[in-house]
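Demo today. Your pick:
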Amino acid sequence: MDPTTPYLTAADTTAAAQVLGMVTDLVDAVAWLYDHWYLLAVVIGAGWAASQHVVRRLAAKASEERMALELVPNRHFEPSLEEIFRRGVQLSRASTAMPWWAPRRSKTVQIRMRADGSSPLRYRIEGPAGGQRLLSIDPFGPDVTVTRGLPTTDKPRQHTVRAEFILRGKPTAPLREVPLIPDPLQPLIDAVADLRGDLGDLAEIRLDIQRAPKWALKARRLHLMSAARRSEHREARRAARWLRQDAAGIDDSLSWHLQELLSSKPRGSGSGRRLVMPPVPRRVEPAQALGKLADDDHLVRVQLLVMCASNIEGRAQARLSQLQAAFDVFGGRSRWAMRGWRLGPWRVGADHWPTRKGFERRWDLGHCQPPRANWVRLEELTGLLKPPTVHCRLPVLASDLPTFEFGNPDLLLQGIYQGPDGRHRVVATYAEETLFEVGVGKAGGGKTERALAQAIGWAHAGGGLLFLDPHRDSWPRAVPFLAHEALMERIALIDLNGLGPTPRVSSWNPLGMHNGQAAHEVVEAITDAYASALGWDDESAPRAITILTCALAVLVAVNETACQAGRVQDQATIFQVRALLTDATFRRAALLAVAGQLDEETRSWWDVVFPTLPPDAFAVVLNPIARLSSNPVTRAFLGQPVGAYNIRAAMDSRMIVWVCPGGSGPTDRLITALLARDLLRAVRSRRDTPDVQRVPFRTYFDELITLTGAAPETIAAMFEDFRKYRCQVHGMTQLLTRLPSAVRLSLMQNASTLATTAGSTSAIAPITAEWGGTPSAERVATMERFHHYVSLSVHGHRVGPVRLRGPHLDTVFAAYARPRQVPDLEKAALATAAVCSLTKLTEHAAAQFGRVGAFITEYAPAQFPLSKEKGYQ
């Protein structure tokens, strides 16, 4: 035996046997597992299911406490790129404000964009309760109102479709850089613009933002680098293969053999075939291979879920297709695409097994489990990180502007709106909020037609109104649509045009006291009307104002005495002012009859001041009265002791009063001033009625230029005061700049509705300036006839300016036209106004001086002379 040969001890033999046994057992175990592989699969599956169950329970528990913020931008919201980017950084940071044990799927911040018919696109942010303080810091400033969001609950819809969007295309390429002008959200808003809440339509987009985990980012980068290297090697091999084929082709070509034959070198002395050097694979640059994933800064993972629902079959699927097309706007080398597979006409996606359950769980709990490809930088999400801006064109929904309902007293007709889907809708505002309206535009543009349609709709709803039209064109246009039995008894026509061979006129006594007016209010109203129409003020005509005021005080006192005596037919009219100032006998009797009713200052003026006035001092007061007296229509209208016109009674009884002064001359302006000032007096007199008992009343002023030329301060006061007494004013004018400054300023300050038709840019510019230049005056000037741009007030918010087509009476109210009943209506309207033949009224007015003189002579007590009798001679 060789002494160098090692001896195996018993221990070594035992150890070797043990190792061999272990290897044999391992081989047997592997063989057994190979034969019973399903048991291993069951164990692995059970372990995975248990871990998933624990993760889901923890994630659900972590998601129980979440907060929500509702962001509502105003009309001037225009954020910068920096402000939007800062908001994105806040959202990314807030997504990690969770307990340490919370699974990653629950660490997310969600942007919800929802359209259900209540608003064009509600913008909401939801996130962990721990991130509330961070999310509440609004970088957009005062242009966005942030409120706590309430839980949203949806009624079940009959048809619902779901979709998850993933990034397709080159995984390292960014989405298209969408500019902020126009708003990047515009395609999404256009996709839901024709959504109808009455059909149960609903569309909601949820974008979850999650900070990128380091290990996942490294794994993704490693995968992309490996793929880039493999691609480079494939390209190198492909290039080498083509290079060898090209070289072989050259050597075997006819040109090569000809060259060999013609060469001076002996055949075969050449070097043979060309030596081909295969290309070496290029070095893969990480920045080029990784693209947007090369840097860690502001890199997030996103999950984009969409759900659409409706009660009408097909509408939800069509809505989803519209949203899919809207997301194509963000596509470039990388794009948003719906996740799933298409099998012929069928598509298998989030609506089908096995992904539907996971979609609903993520949707309900707000969990984020994005696909591997959904890596983006915050710059790519710029368009989705903010609410709609000033550059976004928002549709007008039924919740923004209600649909007009004929006969509904709560709604006021405004026009016809054409929605994004081409459907026309007659829209309205709430009557309680529509306090003052202004309509501007060129002649024939449709502003009066729109006012007539609104007034007719209001009348049929039971409302009272006054339509003041100096040119009378509106009355024959409106009559066929007012000729209803239910309205005839409420309509009165005050027409001072004196038309026809035998004209008939109504009557009104501005000094009449038979309706219980306050004496000082009547005197003030008539004096102010004169001063307004004639341009009097305390500097230019103080004596004329004093003379007229004192004269009216006496005549009003006479009328009070006549009413108390039950002799209302003996009341004085405006034409008795001349007799009071120039007839000593009449003046003495009048002052003696009312001596006990005049205040000390008025009696002193008649005692001391009046006798010192020269005769020519009265001309400035008597000339306007002489013009009224020389016109038979105005003399008949104003010369009656008891008039039928009573605007305060018309307000309280919901009357429909049409007043046509008859023109725009000096006499007509004075009549208009008297009517306007009496209206102001009547409205202010409603202070004696509790606010809840004041009946709403609307006044329509056509041709404001004409009306304000007669009573500028009165019209301005109406726009300032009428709201307090539940009386609303609607004014129409061709040129806003031609209105007196007091009227224009009050009108623009208090207008709840501002409308304009087409016209010259200079005439429209003041209106568009109120809208911030959007739309521009040039755009408005080129509108078609009967189209309007209108800004409205609904629920305390301004809507518009929105483009509306004016409501043409022959289309909107075609079913309510009663042309055969027009004669009956005109007869009833004249009867309500107590019209009488012009001749008879003129004779009665001429005899009124004698009746008033007889009354004051009878009631003038001789035993009660004034202190200085010479004041009456």
User: Anything to note?
Assistant: DSSP finds 30 helices and 24 strands in the chain.
